[in-house]
Design brief:
Strand content: 25-35%
Largest sheet: 3 strands, antiparallel
Number of strands: 9
Low-confidence stretches: none
Distance between the termini: 39 Å
Order of helices and strands: EHEEEEHEEHEHEH
Protein name: ABC transporter ATPase
Shape: globular
Number of helices: 5
Mean pLDDT: 94
Strand order of the largest sheet: 1-5-4
Oligomer: single chain
Organism: Pseudopedobacter saltans (strain ATCC 51119 / DSM 12145 / JCM 21818 / CCUG 39354 / LMG 10337 / NBRC 100064 / NCIMB 13643)
Helix content: 25-40%
CATH architecture of the largest domain: 2-Layer Sandwich
Structural class: alpha+beta
Number of domains: 2
């Protein structure tokens, strides 16, 4: 499915990796949800991605129909049910994710600050900017060096 680069995105970061079996189930849940996701009885042009066994990205192309408050609530309800089913946390915005070689690491704010002070993490470390709002920004500004993200203002 071709989606507009202006499509809205919502990024949910898990506090742990999903297992292979969980990923299979997650694919099924997300596929079913995006195929039936509506706003005011209009089908949303929606898709999803799962990245690095940790990030769930919901995407809505609003050129066909606009995501309403109720439809967004439906997606939040889905994510909450995924949290329950898999015993993960998808809503902890204080967990920061970054790349460490081929691994994705996460830490709380104070631990992340300590890693910067210890120079285990520096301005070139790739972080995940889960605040991006559009598909275009997701493609270009989701995985960026700290110095190019909002993280720089807070931590450097």
């Amino acid at each position: 499915m071709e989606l507009s680069l202006d499509s809205k995105v919502w990024i949910y970061q898990s506090d742990r990796l999903f297992t292979t079996a969980e990923l299979d189930r997650l694919e099924l849940l997300l596929n079913d949800f995006t195929k039936s996701w509506t706003a005011h009885n209009q089908q949303l042009k929606a898709s999803y991605e799962i990245k690095y066994q940790r990030f769930v990205i919901l995407i809505v192309d609003e050129t066909a129909a606009t995501a309403s408050g109720c439809s967004i609530d439906k997606s939040v309800h889905l994510m909450k049910s995924i949290e329950q089913e898999f015993s993960v946390n998808l809503f902890d915005r204080f967990q920061i994710a970054w790349k460490d070689g081929n691994d994705i690491k996460i830490a709380g704010r104070s631990d992340f600050e300590q890693l910067i002070q210890n120079q285990s993490i520096n301005s070139d470390t790739i972080v995940f900017n889960n605040l991006v709002k559009s598909l275009s920004d997701f493609r270009t500004s989701w995985e960026v060096p700290i110095k190019e993200s909002w993280h720089a203002k807070v931590f450097l």
